[in-house]
Amino acid sequence: MKRVLSFLLCAAVVLLLVPACLADEEADGGSGDVVRVGDPLPPFLATMADGSQVSPATLAGRPAVLVFFHTECADCQRELPGLQRLYEAYGARAGFVCISREEGAADVAAYWQAHGLSLPYCACPDRSLYALFAEHTIPRVYVADAAGRVCSQFTERVDQARLQSVLDSLLLSVDVNTAH
């Protein structure tokens, strides 16, 4: 009986978490992309937890990593620690911005504290910022070059080695351009 209850509890948790990641995925299996590789970052203004504001203009001049997430999304929970490690490794050389999809400040702050995250984040209680980039599916990670053009994108799974390689390449390009 105890095993059955444990199984049912686990199944219920999984059923509750999956919709947070795929909440409105289209039946046609469309990518859900609004912004694609090669596109400029759309105009946006994100108010971060510390009160600062981030926009494409504030990210200009260095690579940027924009992460869309929800703390109840199992895929997001899996990817955030790796993104945290990259944030710690690259520091201010790359602009990291995490933006919640339909999740308030208290929930995001509690998750960040409980999991030891220090990634800069914007708690967006609606889909207003997310909708500028995509229609469905999280986590989504967009990497933009110093000019604000999207050069890489990850959906659901982030290939950490590839993301690191992209950042290294972009940083090398920035270093070369600033040396002239």
Describe the structure.
- The protein is α/β, with parallel strands linked by helices.
- The protein has one domain: Glutaredoxin (3-Layer(aba) Sandwich).
- It has five helices and seven strands; from the N terminus they run αββαβαβαβββα.
- It has helices at 2-22, 56-59, 74-90, 105-114, 160-179; strands spanning 46-47, 53-54, 64-69, 95-100, 121-122, 140-144, 150-155.
- The strands form two sheets. The chain has a five-stranded mixed β-sheet with strand order 5-4-3-6-7, with helices on one face. The protein has a two-stranded antiparallel ribbon with strand order 1-2.
- β4, α4 (105-114) and β5 (121-122) form a beta-alpha-beta unit.
- The longest helix is centred in the N-terminal third of the chain and has 21 residues, at 2-22.
- It is globular and about 40 Å long.
- The relative contact order is 0.20.
- Mean pLDDT is 86; it is low at 4-29.
Précis, in short:
The chain is α/β, with parallel strands linked by helices and 180 residues long. The chain has helices at residues 2-22, 56-59, 74-90, 105-114, 160-179; strands at 46-47, 53-54, 64-69, 95-100, 121-122, 140-144, 150-155.
Q: Main attributes?
A:
180 residues, alpha/beta, Glutaredoxin, two-stranded antiparallel sheet, 5 helices, globular
The top level CATH class name:
Alpha Beta
Instruction: Determine the CATH topology.
Output: Glutaredoxin
Relative strand content: 15-25%
Largest sheet: 5 strands, mixed
Low-confidence stretches: 4-29
- What's the order of the H and E elements? HEEHEHEHEEEH
Biggest sheet strand line-up: 5-4-3-6-7
Q: What count of structural domains?
A: 1
Supply the CATH superfamily name. Answer: Glutaredoxin
Q: Identify the overall geometry.
A: globular
Assigned CATH architecture: 3-Layer(aba) Sandwich
Secondary-structure-based class equals alpha/beta
Question: What is the CA-atom radius of gyration, in angstroms?
Answer: 17 Å
The helix content is 40-55%
Ends apart, CA distance between termini: 71 Å
Counted beta strands: 7
SS summary, helix count: 5
* Average of the residue pLDDT scores: 86
